[in-house]
Design goal:
The structure holds two protein chains of two kinds. Chain A is built from ten helices and no strands. Classes of the chains: A mainly alpha, B mainly alpha.
Chain lengths: 204, 336
């Protein structure tokens, strides 16, 4: 047990620290790198909980794909950090106000938070039909049976978002030279090449 | 204290021993893979390859290693020091990390986890960070171009690799690498997976930045790509990491498609040969393919690479996932 506790505090500590560093370091690329470290530690926490499938998916999707593109964009941005920080102070009052409102809302919600008695009894009660299954199978069983429609709907929404992003950013420029593999393959020597027998001395 | 030793100490000591064994094995394989590459390339180009150091040039990798070790590490003054030095370390560490779940023989695996395939996929998808960080931290145009090329290339080919892995998982019904090797595979199922093996082989070439997809390095156009500013041990770590990744990808192909440690083509009378020998031979065959492709094919142009990844492999593998699932469902052959 002591190892689990130590691992938890190490992962949680690094996670919190890197999350703080994401918003405090000056260099945006360093920010993204700390964000990745944060994702990684969150995946570690999932492993500790025994949710290895979610942990791996977190690493594959967020660390392996989303954060790469994020890093890609941040690296390409040519921002002057001094300019960026110059005007930042004027937003402090409104930031404080918004923060205070959010905090008070959280306090209000949480102070009257209560559980129905039957919910308390069901808390952390494992669903019996998944006894003895690995969590990949258990997740699959839930997602593709009881929650198939929300799951498909989520997929559809993401698909629409993807198409939307492509449509918004796509512009067809005229005069771009593109390779058409089909055309190249269909090209025959007889269409483009003419072989002539030239007599010695009569060529141009 | 004794109690703690009995609970954790013994286990930790054994695990550390296994880790050291695996790392030493991988590093030795890397050393002799470079030797094999030079010999095979030499043979394909009608040269001799290394012959001077030791008998048949067998000590050449060690000489190379010593040379790199004794050189000076140069850090460009405009480079971002921490990220610059972290990049090769990350790449190298990731290339070793993935070996934890590879089954070398029946029950010869350091961590026999339920989601072994996903772990492998996750670790290999993080490999891009070493490259992209190196490209950015070097603060040099060539390195940056190399880093960007590598990032887009690896992300593109990961998509089709993921779909290929889904095909294999549909046929085996488990994410555990050991179960994948042991899963029953009739001939028709292997025929169904064969096109995926071809696409996977091409994808791992792109994923490990090897010729003909070695655009991130591209000596002839961007001088050396993301590692142009690296020297001595930092360069050696990139080099080791790249070759360890090649071996890892070959081992992954062996596990997913070629039946891991089992004798080839279901020839059970060959089962007296230790499984690790078969595993090593199959991996070596795929490594030969890597070197063969390098010796044979010219480098792809960048738009051709992207076209192949997104317009050919992605639709093809996607259709194949549906086809595999359909066939398995129709013939009632879904595992589990």
């Amino acid at each position: 047990m002591i190892i689990e506790a130590l691992a938890f505090y190490a992962l949680a500590g690094i996670l919190t620290l890197s999350a703080l560093l994401v918003i405090t370091v000056r260099n945006p690329v360093h920010s993204v790198l700390f964000l990745i470290l944060g994702f990684f530690n969150a995946a570690g926490l999932f492993v500790l909980l025994g949710a290895e499938f979610i942990a791996m998916i977190l690493v594959i999707v967020y660390v392996g794909a989303v954060a790469v593109l994020f890093l890609f964009v941040v690296m390409m941005l040519d921002v002057s950090f001094a300019d960026l920080r110059k005007g930042a102070m004027q937003y402090v009052p409104i930031g404080l106000v918004i923060g205070a409102i959010l905090l008070s809302e959280l306090i209000l919600v949480y102070s009257v938070w209560g559980f129905a008695p039957e919910t308390l009894d069901n808390r952390a009660a494992p669903v019996e039909k998944f006894e003895g299954l690995t969590n990949t199978e258990a997740l699959g069983n839930v997602l593709y049976t009881d929650y198939i429609f929300p799951f498909q709907l989520a997929g559809l929404i993401l698909f629409v978002a993807m198409i939307g992003a492509i449509v918004l950013t796509h512009r067809s420029r005229p005069g771009v030279r593109k390779q058409s593999v089909a055309d190249q393959q269909a090209r025959k020597a007889s269409d483009v090449l003419e072989i002539r027998k030239v007599q010695t001395g009569s060529g141009a | 204290m004794l109690d703690l030793w009995n609970t954790y100490g013994v286990w930790t000591a054994w695990t550390l021993l296994y880790i050291v064994l695996i790392i030493v094995g991988v590093l030795l394989s890397v050393a002799y893979l470079t030797y094999a590459e030079r010999k095979v390339l030499g043979g394909m180009q009608r040269r001799q390859g290394p012959i001077t150091v030791g008998p048949f040039g067998l000590l050449q990798p060690i000489a190379d290693g010593l040379k790199l070790f004794s050189k000076e590490t140069v850090i460009p003054s405009q480079a971002n020091r921490v990220v610059f030095l972290l990049a090769p370390v990350i790449l190298f560490a990731l290339s070793l990390m993935a070996w934890a779940v590879i089954p070398f023989d029946r029950d010869w695996v350091l961590a026999n986890i339920n989601v072994g395939v996903l772990y492998l996929f996750a670790v290999s998808s993080m490999g891009v960070y070493g490259v992209i960080m190196a490209g950015w931290a070097s603060n040099s145009r060539y390195a940056f171009l190399g880093g960007l090329r590598s990032a887009s290339q690896m992300v593109s080919y990961e998509v089709s690799m993921g779909l290929i892995i889904v095909c294999v998982l549909l046929c085996t019904g488990s994410l555990n690498l050991q179960d994948i090797v042991l899963a029953e595979r009739p001939v028709w199922m292997q025929a169904l997976l064969f096109p995926m093996l071809i696409v996977f082989l091409i994808s791992i070439l792109a994923e490990t930045n090897r010729a003909p997809f070695d655009l991130p390095e591209g000596e002839s156009e961007i001088t050396g790509g993301f590692m142009v500013e690296y020297s001595a041990m930092a360069f050696a770590l990139f080099f080791l990491g790249e070759y360890a990744n090649m071996i890892l990808m070959s081992a992954m192909t062996t596990v997913l498609f070629l039946g891991g440690w089992l004798p080839p083509f279901g020839m059970d009378f060959l089962a007296f040969v230790p499984g690790i020998v078969w595993f090593a031979l199959k991996t070596a065959a795929i490594l030969f393919f890597f070197i063969w492709a390098r010796a044979t094919l010219p480098r792809f142009r960048y738009d051709q690479l992207m076209r192949l990844g997104w317009k050919v492999f992605l639709p093809f593998t996607l259709i194949w996932v549906v086809l595999t699932a359909g066939v398995l469902l129709t013939f009632d052959a879904l595992p589990g």
